[in-house]
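U., I forgot to send this yesterday:
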Amino acid sequence: LPLAVAPGADAPPAVKVLIITGDHGHDWKATTPVLKGLLTKAGHKVDVTESPSEALTADNLAKYDVLLLNYRNTPKGAKDRPASVWSEANKKAFTEAVKGGKGLVVYHHASSAFVGGSDFDKEFEKVIAGGWRKQGNHGKMHEFSVAMRKDHPITKGLSEFKHGRDELYQNSLITKGSEVLCTAHADKDKDPKNSGKHEPVVWVSTYGKGRVYHNSLGHDAEAMKSSAGFAVLMARGVEWAATGKVSS
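Result:
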């Protein structure tokens, strides 16, 4: 696996990334620094907001090339951190930013954000190209291999790699028009709850003019650090979402 190229004289312009977090069913306080670190190492410029209610405005989002969701709306999060709650105006600003051409990266549990029955929740599913939603599941955390399934700038030159200990998302919703880039075999010998199928774990899509990169890997900091492959796929996914190309 090639490692993410460190920024240098020949490095492409840094992609400006906003990590949107502050509420999550998982430990966002631990995973956010790992995301920021690996993307910064790859040469991207990364800001973090833990207060989407303040950050998700048209003027602020215009400063960024890519929005990265490490977020899931929860009742506990709304109670503990009111600033993490998205207003109707926030939801509109986010949706219109992606539709207008802003890159979007959906990381792990963010695929189960906003799964209610509102018009926005239904549209959000299209924006993020599906994922866990309500029908997803996984067995126990375990090690597995991630295989490249499509020749794409994000997967170019990469080979199958060992990954884990991690959650292997299964029965993910893959929206129409999406391209599956990577899969992992949900081995029943490792857990009877596994599907026995090759499950999509990384895919890409579009929403309006925006490029959408969906990576279901990385339950916790340990899983994110367990393989160089995760870091490469995430760094490349961010660049592709911003530019449609990958430089390293």
